[in-house]
Amino acid sequence: MDSTLVPRCIGAVSRVSLLQEQLRELFGVSGVTLVPVPGSAPTTDAPWPALVLAQALKDVGLGARVWIGLRRASPVRKSATALVRERPTVRQHYESFGIDPSTIGPLRLVPSRLVLVDDVITKGRTLFAAAARLQSALPHADIRAFALIRTVGRQPPERVLDICQGVVRWAGGDARRDP
C-alpha cells in the first residue's frame, strides 16, 4: 500500500470537515474518542488499517484520543475475500468482539462521544456489531461511526470524495445500511 495514501485521505477528510455539516456533527464534539474497529483476526502488535486511520484522524484534530479497548477475541472470516453468503453475520461479529475491561474505567469518566473508525463499510454488519458490543459495556455512551470508504454494490464509484451520512439498522434479521 502507498504509505502516503492514508495521510492524503485524512487530510482531505480534515479539509472537508470544515465545510461539510455531516463531518462537523460527527467530529465537532469536544472530547471525541476514536475507537478503531479490529480486523477479522485478534490483533497483534502490528497496527491494522482502522487503527492507522484513527491515529491519523486524531493527528489532524478530529478526535481527542484513540481508545483500543474494543478487541477481536476470536477470528471471523475476512469479508473482503468471502463470497457474499459466506461473510460473517452480525451475531458472529458481536460474539467475536470483546472489551478490554482494564481500559473502560477512564471512559466512564469522560463524557465524550465514541466514534467507531473503520476503513470500509459494505453492509454495515461489522460496525453494527461493534456498536452493540460497546453499548453493552457502556450503556450511556453516544456511539457513532466513520468509514473512509463506502461501497455501493458492484458499481464503480462515481466520485472519489462523496461525503454521506447514513444509518445502519437492524432490519429483516440483518444489518442494513442506508445509504
Total strands: 8
Q: Average the pLDDT over all residues and give the rounded result.
A: 84
Percentage of residues assigned to helices = 25-40%
CATH level-3 fold name = Rossmann fold
> Order of helices and strands, N to C?
HHEHEEHEHEHEEE
Biggest sheet, open or closed, and with what strands and sense? 4 strands, parallel
CATH class equals Alpha Beta
Strand content: 15-25%
Structural class of the helices, strands and pairings?
alpha/beta
Distance between the termini: 28 Å
Poorly predicted segments: none
Query: Taking Cα atoms only, what radius of gyration do you get, to the nearest Å?
Result: 16 Å
Helix/strand layout:
Layout (H helix, E strand, L loop, with lengths): L4 H13 L3 H7 L5 E4 L12 H11 L5 E2 L3 E3 L17 H7 E3 L4 H6 L4 E8 L3 H13 L5 E8 L16 E5 L2 E5 L1
Helix pairs in contact: 1-3, 4-6
Task: Please describe what this structure looks like.
The chain has six helices and eight strands. The radius of gyration is 16 Å and the shape is globular. The protein has helices at residues 5-17, 21-27, 49-59, 90-96, 104-109, 125-137; strands spanning 33-36, 65-66, 70-72, 97-99, 114-121, 143-150, 167-171, 174-178. The mean pLDDT is 84. The chain has a single domain, classed as 3-Layer(aba) Sandwich (Rossmann fold). Helices cover 32% and strands 21% of the residues. It is of the alpha/beta class. Helix 4 packs across helix 6 (125-137).
